[in-house]
Amino acid sequence: MKLRDLEYFCYLYQVGTFTGVAKHFNVEQPTVTLAIKRLEASLKTKLAFRNRSKGLIQITPAGEILYRHASNMLRDAKLANLEIDQYTSKKIRFGLPPIIGSLYFPLIIDGIIQDHLLEDLEVDETGSQQLLLDLQGGKIDIALLGSPLPLQNNVINTTFLTSRQFVVISSKTHWLSQSQSISFAKLKSEPFITLNGRFIHSEVLKVYSNQAKFHPHIIFETQSIETMKRLVERNAGIGLLVKDAIRPSDELSLTALENPLPERFNISIATRKNYLADDHEQAFISDLFKLQTILN
Question: Which ranges of the sequence are coiled-coil (predicted)?
């Protein structure tokens, strides 16, 4: 079976017309028809037929089976091309969330410089949720990820390094500044400033809110940790943030959570399963492992 034939078939499954497939791939319609016929001849079964009453192509049960497997085959072929290109480029495609990048990555930067790896880094800086998708899709090959619970994923290998505490942050003029600890349920009426869905913080806020049986009143979402902190400083709302992100210079009060949930800021090294790291990527991963000793 040809990969291009499988691409045509998978897109036919999605759009339901030969015309739509031909237009998408910029080919003539007979080219698509011939590709489907080749697949049917190879598999010795009918994959699709024309439903004239609906004006669409209907996929047979055999076609349904092929679509599931072909989708995985095409994804793996794409990843193979990306990994082969990467292997010959000698670049380290690395995912680094902003919080980890600002707080923890500098702790190991001297070793990375000494190993002459800094110039090889191509860094993707965004939240851990997005980086996990980038890793699965082949945009990056190695990442430091934050997660509410230790990561478990069918296509990702992870090595847990450490976990850090979440705290409630507020202005020093807010009533919370007088409390060393608080039950999350008592924050029901408070407006929240939060990091957006690319960060795990929004997920952790949702978990705590669900446990406390209320929907948080989010008045502003941002992808900037500094913006979040400055708005909280001005008493625009309160926030939930990993404790290490608060610096002594921040005009913020920190309040611990009573009876904290298992969700914490867990930091892990992640790669795709079966990813073949070259020598300088292995050296880089070894440098990342040093965080485990430094932070624990």
Answer: none
